[in-house]
Amino acid sequence: MRIIFIEDEHALRENTTKALEENGYSVDAVDNGEDGLFHTLEYPSDLVIVDLGLPKLDGIQLIRKARAEGINTPILILTARDRWQEKVEGLDAGADDYLTKPFHTEELLARCNALIRRSVGQDTPEISAGPITINTRTQQVRVNGKALDLTAYEYKVIEYLLLNPEKVISKTELTEHIYDQDFELDSNVIEVFVGRLRKKIDPDGTLKPIQTLRGRGYRLALEVS
User: Fold this and answer.
1) Which residues contact 79 (CB under 8 A, 6 or more apart)?
2) Residues 42 and 114 in one domain
3) pTM, whole model, 2 decimals?
4) pLDDT range class, residue 121, cuts 50, 70, 90
5) Looking at 19-28, 30-39, 77-86, which range is the least confident one?
């Protein structure tokens, strides 16, 4: 999952970006509102985290402009402001949630996970598709109750497929959502990950959980519950 993180405080931006990346997110971090709005409008993402007190363009204006342009990506406000009126203003501008500084990393991660899940209609961290079950909080994958040993990127691929059931997902879209923006988009590495996933999830070839649509991409072939 890919996050755009807009925060002007250098230490907080660096430390939070590191924590998010260590927990499996790809992060585009920027330090001002103008660049933040550009990234929000131009680059696909699964969540935008916005500080309110930004230079060049404050967080409230950024959120309003993004929503006016039709961006429906979940937005989480980070704010050092403790006045309830400013929190309400942020939510009224189009944000989905807020977190007051200072915050615990565990709470930020939990809110990120919940916002991304809810944006695709999933209320709990545990998502199932046939015999496959993933937990988006612990990043564990099980098939018929047996835990699988997946690499970080293999997990990202199966998670994205389960969070977007019935949707045909191109290699480009998968790459944009699991890698940083400067990754080579025409790489065939996605094919390698999908091939490995099929072998680990469906070693005898009877389940066929991931469908390939030639020239279009991949689609989860199982019903999600």
Assistant:
1) 51, 52, 53, 59, 86, 87, 90, 98, 99, 100, 101
2) yes
3) 0.83
4) confident
5) 77-86
Residue where one domain finishes, among candidates 88, 119, 150: 119
According to the model, what pLDDT value does residue 183 have? Answer: 53
Is residue 178 very low, low, confident or very high in pLDDT (cuts 50, 70, 90)?
confident
Assess whether 22 and 113 both reside in one domain: yes
Question: What's the mean pLDDT in 36-61?
Answer: 95
Contacts 24+ apart (CB under 8 A), 221-225: 222/129, 222/130, 222/132, 222/165, 223/129, 223/130, 223/165, 224/127, 224/128, 224/129, 224/162, 224/165, 225/127, 225/128, 225/129
Expressed in angstroms, the distance from the first to the final Cα of the chain is: 20
Q: What is the DSSP letter of 44?
A: -
Say which residues have a Cβ less than 8 Å from residue 155's Cβ, sequence separation at least 6.
24, 134, 139, 141
Contact criterion met (CB below 8 Å) for 161 and 130: no
164 and 204, same domain (yes or no): yes
CA distance 162 to 130: 11
